[in-house]
Amino acid sequence: MKLEDRMNRSIKQRTSVVILRSDFAHMASDSQIGRVLARFVAEGKLIRVSKGAFAKTRINKFTGKPTPAGTLETIAAELFRKLNISVKPSYLVVEYNSGKSTQIPMATTVNTGRRRISRKVTVGNSTLTYEKNSRRA
């Protein structure tokens, strides 16, 4: 069985939306995995959301083109869970959920605590932003 077929079957069997490049490390060399993942992105089976991280796609019923199988919030939450990075809701989301504010947060922001994260996570035109604990004092 070809590497592409094995990787395709592995992706389809996963219930998660986020696929990491390291998930396929046991199958082949880095360059072979990179070529197959690039082919999947070109075909529209996957979309690249961050370095070494991809998301499954589904066909949009209105446009007929592949779109991510989740929102930026769900994809980012799953990505950080897979990378063992703990993040919390942003200060504005906490205020909105507790009823202290009626302003609906528009930007997708997560609180990283004291940790500094520079990973760029992008889904479509939306990019995840980070905030530190400075406002929670």
Description of the molecule:
The structure is a single chain. The chain has 137 residues and is an alpha+beta fold. It is 32% helix and 22% strand. The N and C termini lie far apart (56 Å). A hairpin with a 6-residue loop joins strand 3 and strand 4. Strands 1, 2, 3 and 4 form a 4-stranded antiparallel beta sheet that branches. It has 2 domains: 1-70, Orthogonal Bundle (Arc Repressor Mutant, subunit A); 71-137, no CATH class. The mean pLDDT is 91. It has 4 helices and 9 strands, in the order H-E-H-E-E-E-H-E-H-E-E-E-E. The longest helix has 14 residues, at 30-43. This is S-adenosylhomocysteine hydrolase. It comes from Pseudomonas duriflava. Pfam families: DUF6088 (PF19570).
Q: Could you tell me the radius of gyration in angstroms?
A: 17 Å
**Any idea what the shape is?**
globular
Number of structural units classed as domains: 2
Succession of helices and strands:
HEHEEEHEHEEEE
Strand content: 15-25%
Mean pLDDT over the residues: 91
The tally of strands reads: 9
Q: pLDDT below 50 for ≥5 consecutive residues: which ranges?
A: none
DSSP helix fraction: 25-40%
Cα-to-Cα separation, first versus last residue:
56 Å
CATH topology of the largest domain: Arc Repressor Mutant, subunit A
| CATH class call of the largest domain | Mainly Alpha
Q: Per CATH, which architecture of the largest domain?
A: Orthogonal Bundle
Query: What's the tally of helices?
Result: 4
Alpha-beta classification:
alpha+beta
In this structure, how is the largest beta sheet organized? 4 strands, antiparallel
